[in-house]
Automatic annotation (TrEMBL), chain A:
Any single GO CC term annotated in Swiss-Prot or TrEMBL for this entry: eukaryotic translation initiation factor 3 complex
Boundaries of every CSN8/PSMD8/EIF3K domain copy: 65-187
SUPFAM superfamilies in alphabetical order: ARM repeat (SSF48371), Winged helix' DNA-binding domain (SSF46785)
Gene3D superfamilies the UniProt entry points to: ARM repeat, domain 1 (1.25.40.250), Winged helix-like DNA-binding domain superfamily/Winged helix DNA-binding domain (1.10.10.10)
Protein name, UniProt field: Eukaryotic translation initiation factor 3 subunit K
Quaternary data: Component of the eukaryotic translation initiation factor 3 (eIF-3) complex.
Top-level taxon: Eukaryota
Family (UniProt): Belongs to the eIF-3 subunit K family.
TrEMBL record, chain B:
Main location: cytoplasm
Chain ranges passing through the membrane: none
Function text: Component of the eukaryotic translation initiation factor 3 (eIF-3) complex, which is involved in protein synthesis of a specialized repertoire of mRNAs and, together with other initiation factors, stimulates binding of mRNA and methionyl-tRNAi to the 40S ribosome. The eIF-3 complex specifically targets and initiates translation of a subset of mRNAs involved in cell proliferation.
Keyword Protein biosynthesis: yes
Domain PCI: 305-504
UniProt-recorded name of the protein: Eukaryotic translation initiation factor 3 subunit L
GO cellular component: eukaryotic 43S preinitiation complex; eukaryotic 48S preinitiation complex; eukaryotic translation initiation factor 3 complex
Summary of subunit composition and partner proteins: Component of the eukaryotic translation initiation factor 3 (eIF-3) complex.
Amino acid sequence: MGREQQQAAYTVEQLVAVNPYNPDILTDLENYVNEQVSSQTYSLDANLCLLRLYQFEPGRMSVPIVVRILIKALMAMPAPDFSLCLFLIPEQVQMEEQIKTLIVLSHYLETARFRQFWEEAAKNRSTLEVVPGFEQAIQAYAIHVLSLTYQKVPRPVIAEAINIEGLSLDKFLEYHVANSGWVLEKGHSRSQLMVLPRNEFNHPELKKNTVDGMPFEHVTRIFPILS
Amino acid sequence: MASSYDYDDASLDSRYARPPSAGQGGAGTDQGYDPNFVPDSVKTFVVHLYRHIREKNVYEIHQMYDGSFQRLSDRMFRESPWPSVEAIAPYVDNDHVFCLLYREMWFRHLYARLSPTGRQRVESWDNYCSLFSVVLHGVVNMQLPNQWLWDMVDEFVYQFQSYCQYRAKLKNKTEEELQLLRQYDQAWNVYGVLNYLQALVEKSAITDVLEREKEGLEQFTATDGYDYEGGTSNVLKMLGYYSMIGLLRVHCLLGDYHTGLKCLAPIDISQQGVYNVVIGSHISTIYHYGFANLMLRRYVEAIREFNKILLYILKYKQYHQKSPQYDQILKKNEQMYALLAICLSLCPQNNLVEENVNSQLRDKYNEKMTKMLRYDDEAYAVYDELFTYACPKFITPSAPVLEEPLTNYNQDAYRLQLKLFLYEVKQQQLLSGVRSFLKLYSTISVGKLAAYMEVDEPTLRTILMTYKHKMHAVDGDGKIIPNADVDFYISEDIVHVVESKPTKRYGDYFLRQILKFEEMISELDRIKLD
């Protein structure tokens, strides 16, 4: 069963690479979107190809499929996939209720308004439930933004960002302490702090200084002179 | 959003200098144009051109194509088309391929100097189909100048864009024109255009050629794509190469920036390559590459490339003053300054812009850039204005609905891209304020900064995270690239600011001076003193 699915996915990717400007592959691409949803995989190229074909043949556009593509794109954050998809969706279609909701959700995520995001998401469970793995993907994005920004982040900030509290939050933090190099610390006023792993974004001294670096090709230009 | 820049391009074709008395609607009906009359100079022209093509004398072909054709057009065909292909065919042995090439030039001249009718647009499409089919079947055995081959692809995409605009303005069409649209619904269809470009890329195997060249197994860039020894045809190969740029352009017109960049990927623009041999192709490549990166929020990449090309144009535009592409070069130059102004307002940088380019930029846009950094209503108007001026002419690719009510929807695609762009600008609204505060401090507590910015602490935390998110773009391989010149990190509730100081680039400076002096020394060595 798995092998067959793998082969089918291989064929669709091939189609997109070799023969993308072809209305006959529209149905295959739609099936592929559903497959991405059920098997929790993702292919930006195939989905953009489908949105292009919808642009060429507006009569064949399916709003439920577009909704699924957009949810998948949200899950790909911080990559700008959601905007890339919106560029290809006509204005009238963007007025559909579900799509308007997704645009609002994207806005909250883009501006790091996690509290408002989770509130709005809760109100729209029915739309989002369609795609398994949504919550985890957004939580991963939230952690990503936190690790760009903080060396030491207070517990309430994490809680709000990933929408987990209480015992579940304890479990979540324990997991990351064990597996992702997080360290629990006590901040002032005895609040809990998570020390996030050092990377070049929250520890600028780790940033490689490439300002005075030169591409090797440029240096080769003076080799004839030096010899 | 009303903007002061006229977006309608069908009647304001600034691609070529147009004489003020250009014929209106329906070329060939004014001033007693006789398609069958062939002046002697034209006779000589086609006979010589045909001979040079047969003899594969690329240099002479280029002289005739770039020089004689323009001079004859200026002298004799300012406001009328060239003689029809049927009239000149007898002088060139009725050679099928030559006639297709002549017709391509014929239509290009028509678009530049006059206004093509609906029927002529369709006929031009047919001509391109025949021409490309012949090339794809591998039966074209000639070497043509790169300028000509680039112009073919460039014109192909341009006429497609022009037709989409034409087709989307239904309100004032006559019944005859509507009937033509109904009858020839396959003309300039988007699948055809994309598939021809794709076919040229594939059939020429140009990506393989470029790959092999990287490993030193093939000469391509070194000979500018020509085959000086073997004399094999360069037509399919070069059309394939230029079609990659054509595909980038078409995808930008559709709003699909990601795929456009993918189409360009086999060409390494950090190196010299065939794409910058013809200045038109160089400018078109960088313009669309930069624009796509701007829409993908990769501001630093866009700024870098715009800076390089604007510097190049500054240095070398004087050599192209006589060329028919000069106006187009100037126009794109101005548009790229506008895009650079936008990029630098969204993502200020200290030392990415060369000083001559920077002074030109300040001359043109200093006031506007100050306004854009303020992020009030006036700022949005400026972003709107510059985007409208500088963006590609987006198209609606689907076939028109030819029933009542007939509307003009040629601006829909542009309006969507503009709306989404301004939406992105709005999301970055508060970042400029954060940046100015961060520049003043090396550390500051979250509470104090929130007070200065007149927001509460949780809001400030979200603003700071937004700054981090927006200023770190994700490139094609999923890597995170920092874009900001002012950076920070938060430790519990203290913000520590890190400003990247503009460092002197000694290495680069020495390198350039070494090369310059070496050049001077070899120049001096060459001078013989009597």
